[in-house]
Every structure is written in structure tokens, then in C-alpha cells.
Design a protein that fits this description.
The chain is an alpha/beta fold. It has helices at about 1-10, 15-25, 60-65, 65-75, 85-95, 110-120, 135-145, 155-165, 165-175, 185-195, 215-225, 240-250, 270-280, 310-315, 335-340, 355-360, 370-385, 385-400, 405-420, and strands spanning about 50-55, 80-85, 100-105, 125-130, 150-155, 180, 200, 230-240, 260-265, 285, 300-305, 320, 345, 365-370. The protein is about 45% helix and about 15% strand. The relative contact order is 0.11.
Length: about 425
């Protein structure tokens, strides 16, 4: 009965889905492309056994990079199918993997759509990243005998409370997943409390990320263009409302020649942040308009209006703030910054990445501040104290290295599921 009510609600939301795509398409025309795929209609054909992995957007797509490389090597005769929900995730997939894999949108969770998806691609194994728990998709996989692995699974306290409001439906969905590989013991305990079985702890795949040589080279190029002698403070993955707070607060920093590199989380907000910079009277340059020449000394900020270059931005920065944490958005992944060697500052709201943040702070690779005043204080202190900054840089490498290994463990689970099913 609950599943029927869930499906009925989806049908009632169908007009909204169309309006949502049109609305998002106003600022991101990519949302208006490949719409039939979102309902289970695919022009692409596959002739090899399929290993299917679902990565919603950019973060998940980058997180599975090491695993996909290992899967391509271990299963050269198979087709790796990567599904996405957002155009930015799909674009990142194209940038990272090219034509070595196939990529499409995962359909909305309508029974007819997920059934068509499974009939078209006939995956031998499905891998869902993090918290992608879709009731009809899981049910269709059970009916089609497609084993499912919830990979790099995380479940925050807030998410667990939300799932618990629909306890029976959540439990039914979780029981339909053959194996759950949680990031941490806390994630595993919350998933088990919701009714999940066959839960193991494998660590976080994001620790296995390495900065690609092309991004390392681009980071060095940025550094030269921004000015070798200038200190660079990166505000990465900022969210709505945070940029205004940051721009107001950073006016209190007294560091000659400091360059702000600001990269909004969502590309549809690039123009909005450009307007904010203008309103604050900050001379800035768009990343998309950079030339081979170094930027002028009077430029005080660079707006990172590009996709797929965050690793290069981290590589160019002396210090990075991870957005989504000054306001209660739950924060963003700080592991990629640490892997690139950029010391990290985060705000008080990190509930989406609580354990990774705690580990980074404990390792001395990151500092957590409570507000903009605290952020300004730490930026001023660290960027005028080369010894302290270098020590944080050194600790970043140790922090990441000490938590690697989730890729190999995940590969073993994938092997065992394929052999069993």
C-alpha cells in the first residue's frame, strides 16, 4: 500500500517535473537535452555485458573515478554504464572518462521508466552511490534479478530521521539491496537501524581520488596567471547567501595583494555572483575570459565560471574554504581539497560530511570556524604565518593517505556479488 501511495504521488508530481525541467533549462539549457532518457527511452545500444553505476552529480562522478579505472582494467570485455541525474554530472563523466564508458540519465522512479531502463541495458550488477534509495527502481531490480550494491553509502542523522518517518517503506527498499558498503561505522549503524541487512564498512572512495596530471598542470598554469607572488584564497562550492557574507567579511582582511578565487557550487549562479562582485566594487575577472597573460595587479578576484576544474583551483590555492558550511546546507566534500594539498577551512554546518570533517580537523588538515568573524581571523592568521600554513599543507597529505583503500575493498565486494549472482 505504501509503495502504491508513493507511486501515486510521483504521478501527481509529473506536471511539476516538466515545469522543473523547463525552469532549470532557462539557466542551464542542458536540462532540456536527453529528456526521453529520464522516462526510460534510450537511443544508445549495448552489445556487451553491462556493469551499471549511478552517480547523481559532479561529486559522486569524481568519487568513483578510481573505481571505474579499476573496473575498466578488471572487466575489459564489459560495458561500464554510468547514469546521472544532473547535466553537470554527465559533463564531468564525459570529461573524465570520454568514450571508454557509456553515459545516460537514470530515469525518474516511475515503474514503467525503470522497467524500460532495465530491459534496455540488462545490467549484470547495479551500483548506487551514497544515498540513492529509489523504491520502484529497487523493486524492479529485484523482479529482474539484478543484484544491487549501495556503494560509498552515507546516512546523516538528519537523513536518518527523514527516512524513519516512512519506516516501513524505507525498510522495504533497503531490504531489496543485496549489499550495502557504508563509509563509516556511524553510517552503517544508522542504515541498520532503518532495517538494512548485509551492511559492511569499507571507507570513503573519495580518499582514493588523485589529482589527474592535466589538472595538476592546469593548477600550475592558474598559479602563474594569478601571480606567483600573490597569496590566493579559494572559496570553493559556495552556496546561495554565502558569497555576500564572504565578500562583506573579507573586506576586513589586511593582506596586500590577496587574490580571492570564488567558485559557486551551481553554474546557474555564475551571473548572480558576478553581480555581487560588481556591487561590492571588487575588480574581478572571469575564469572563462582568462588569457595566457598574467592578470592585472588591480584584479582582486577571479570568478571560477568553469566546470570540472575544481582540482586545478585547489592546486592553485594557498588556502581553501569549503562552501555550503557557513549557512546550514550541510557542507561539501573537503577530501578533494586535502588531496590537492590545500589546507581547509569549514564553517559550522557540515552534517553531510560530519565524519570526514572531524577526521580532517583531528589530523590538522582542516580548521572549523563558527562564523564569518572566525573565518576572517583564521585566513588572516594562516596567510601571514608561512610556518603554520606549511604544516597544514603537510598534514593534508598524511590525512588522505591514512584513509585510502576503499576502492580495493569495493572491488572485492563487486567480484563476490558477480560470482554469486
Amino acid at each position: 500500500m505504501l509503495k502504491r501511495l508513493y507511486t501515486l504521488l510521483l504521478w501527481l508530481l509529473l506536471p511539476y517535473i516538466g515545469l522543473h525541467l523547463l525552469w532549470r533549462g532557462r539557466k542551464q539549457p542542458e536540462y532540456l537535452k536527453h529528456i526521453p532518457e529520464r522516462f526510460g527511452f534510450y537511443p544508445v545500444k549495448v552489445s556487451r555485458p553491462v556493469l551499471w553505476l549511478h552517480a547523481v552529480s559532479v561529486g559522486e562522478t569524481r568519487a568513483v573515478q578510481s573505481l571505474i579505472e579499476r573496473l575498466l582494467a578488471a572487466y575489459p570485455q564489459w560495458q561500464i554504464l554510468l547514469t546521472h541525474t544532473t547535466p553537470t554530472g554527465r559533463a564531468t563523466s564525459l570529461q573524465l572518462y570520454g568514450d571508454r564508458i557509456q553515459r545516460v540519465y537514470l530515469p525518474y522512479d516511475f515503474p514503467f521508466a525503470v522497467k524500460r531502463f532495465l530491459q534496455h541495458f540488462k545490467p549484470q550488477l547495479g551500483m548506487l552511490m551514497e544515498t540513492e534509495i529509489w523504491v520502484n527502481l529497487i523493486d524492479a531490480c529485484q523482479n529482474s534479478a539484478v543484484p544491487l550494491l549501495l556503494l560509498n553509502a552515507r546516512m546523516s542523522e538528519k537523513s536518518a530521521r527523514n527516512y524513519a518517518r516512512f519506516a516501513q517503506l524505507s525498510k522495504t527498499a533497503l531490504l531489496g539491496i543485496n549489499r550495502i558498503a557504508a563509509q563509516t561505522e556511524s553510517d552503517a549503524q544508522r542504515l541498520s537501524a532503518l532495517g538494512a541487512h548485509h551492511v559492511c564498512v569499507l571507507g570513503n572512495l573519495k580518499f582514493d581520488i588523485t589529482t589527474p596530471p592535466a589538472m595538476q598542470s592546469l593548477g600550475q598554469q592558474f598559479r602563474a596567471q594569478f601571480g606567483i607572488g600573490r597569496l590566493i584564497f579559494l572559496a570553493a562550492s559556495t552556496r546561495d547567501g554565502e558569497e555576500k557574507l564572504l565578500l562583506n567579511a573579507l573586506q576586513n582582511i589586511n593582506i596586500p595583494g590577496l587574490l580571492l578565487l570564488i567558485v559557486p557550487r551551481h553554474p546557474q549562479r555564475f551571473a548572480e555572483v558576478a553581480t555581487l562582485l560588481e556591487q561590492h566594487g571588487i575588480a574581478f575577472q572571469h575564469r572563462s575570459q582568462l588569457t595566457a597573460q598574467a592578470i592585472a595587479p588591480e584584479i582582486r578576484a577571479v570568478l571560477g565560471d568553469s566546470m570540472g576544474e575544481m582540482a586545478a583551483y585547489y592546486g592553485a590555492a594557498d588556502l581553501a574554504f569549503i562552501g555550503g558550511s557557513l549557512l546550514p546546507f550541510g557542507g561539501q566534500n573537503l577530501i578533494e581539497a586535502c588531496a590537492a594539498g590545500a589546507p581547509v577551512l569549514v564553517g559550522p554546518h557540515t552534517f553531510n560530511f560530519a565524519e570526514a570533517t572531524q577526521l580532517a580537523v583531528a589530523a590538522g588538515a582542516a580548521l572549523q570556524v563558527q562564523d564569518c568573524a572566525g573565518l576572517v581571523k583564521e585566513v588572516q592568521r594562516l596567510l601571514t604565518n608561512p610556518v603554520a600554513l606549511h604544516e597544514m599543507h603537510r598534514r593534508c597529505a598524511g590525512f588522505v593517505e591514512s584513509h585510502r583503500g576503499a576502492t580495493e575493498k569495493s572491488l572485492q565486494v563487486i567480484h563476490s556479488l558477480l560470482q554469486k549472482h
